[in-house]
Amino acid sequence: MSTVEQQLDDLKATITSELPNDISVSSVKYEGPELVLYTRDPKKFAQQGDLVRKLASKLRKRITVRPDPGVLSPPNKARSEIERVIPEEAGVTDLDFHVDTGEVVIEAEKPGMVIGRHGSTLREITKTVGWTPEVVRTPPIESSTVSNVRNFLKQERDDRRDILERVGRQIHREEMSDDEWVRITTLGCCREVGRAAFILSTPETRILIDCGDKPGAEGEVPYLQVPEALGAGAQTIDAVVLTHAHLDHSAFIPLLFKYGYDGPIYCTEPTRDLMGLLTLDYLDVAAKEGRAPPYESEMVREAIKHCIPLEYGDVTDIAPDVKLTFHNAGHILGSAVSHFHIGDGLYNVAFSGDIHYEDTRLFNGATNDFPRVETLVLESTYGGRNDYQTDQEDSERKLKEVIKRTAERGGKVLIPAFAVGRSQEIMLVIEQAMRNGEIPEMPVHLDGMIWEATAIHTTYPEYLRDDLRDRIFHDDENPFLAEEFNHIDEGEDERQRVADGDPCIILSTSGMVTGGPIMSWLSHIGPDPDSTLVFVGYQAQGTLGRRIQNGWDEIPTSEVGAMGRNGNGGGRGTLSLNMNVETVDGFSGHADRAGLENFVRTMNPRPEKVLCVHGDERSTQDLSSALYHEFNMRTFAPKNLETFRFK
Asked: What is the pTM assigned to this prediction?
């Protein structure tokens, strides 16, 4: 008998001894980080609401209880009983029964009403029909991404359960080494912005944190070929942790499966969905630009199938010697500061991913309250000595002034925006300003993936700022459903009509003007001196956005790509940018220099060491020096391919 089988037998015996005599457990299995109990008495389990919590506390494991398939009431009968228990105003849109696991997935417009106070309605469902309910939200804005992900995972349930059982056995295997050490190897994003990737190693475990591309630098992949990463084979990686879905952190996650990786990806649920959206678009853009894609779309589906979603605050075993906890990073939807507790109190490491320390309209500020952190790996995008962003209130005031001036001239406001995060932030500012009469009412056109990304935001309001979440949850005042917002879905003809029409605002991808529909908008509107191009996000070195920001007003048509009908601009082979160009700081999803310092200052206890990463050479060195002098801690501005040993 294997060690894991013996462990499961021992757990079953312990659980049986803790249960009342009239409740039985037929089998116990690991599925990923969870311990799953199958019982012929699901209704009695549900009647004793604290039973699962007490077992979880005693065993120090996450526990799910499922009914033995043999005791389930038929789906048709269960459906009517469930519909009777759930309040009508919950807006149930679908019930999907899975006989193999005894789960019923309930999709509803108001999941909170399905759950009930402290889970009371869920327990009532199990007490009534025996099935284990799982609740998901019906997106207020229809989302093809959310629908496709859910349908795909439904189709792949058997395969996915096999993956989870294999992962569970790997997590709970016997430790093989008596050595104790912790190492971090930098595979990218050191003294540069983008291609984030790190290996966290112990004698037992090797974990890859992020695997992204570098904006404006085609083909610069993280150093995956080194022995610490995939050089010894993809199967030597035990787990992947994805802090958030932006491509400079996620673009090459599917590539791992092309190389033979077959393990788990830990991320939040919205990160999983957004990764699918952004990586598929990444492949689409590569094909349109005539570049060979680094992997096939099938690899994106494999990545999604291997995702194990975690919620903020859940402490989760991901290896025999590593526990992972996600905390809100305040950067984009589902972004997470990733805290690793290694060994039995041996060492603690936190990876910030990308963070925004202060509250924004969209998110609560990043969490930095951890029981222990000895080493912090900290982003430094705006870590330079003079990288202080404008106050948010001032930024919003300037944006509204630019919109008003442009509208008075009869022009159009073109805002290159990242589909995820900045677009929704700007949408909230514009919606409130129009509602309060601060700027004229006019159409706001959303192009590229912005509408779809917004739909995903409305699917997961629990990840948004408290007051915004409450508006969406309770007040039926979803600002993203304002009538001013229009989804550009008819392509070039619709863009031409907008360009020929009245004043309006256009939010379009890509945010760094490196491709996508923004190029078409430049060809249509760029020559118009009454219109304004407004940068509201970071423009990386080497991108067209940075060059325009630095004063370029003649753009080679090779940069613009397929031109619109108004796009021959100045001379042959160039597009003249006659439109005004403005930069409105303060809308970045990244903390500025003060925010980064405050993130460290307010940590209690503070880390002993800080690795300053994900910033250009000046930014990482400036921040490293400042933290050293201010807090008397050991700080580093590592280069790529450095390894740090702790302990």
From this structure: 0.92
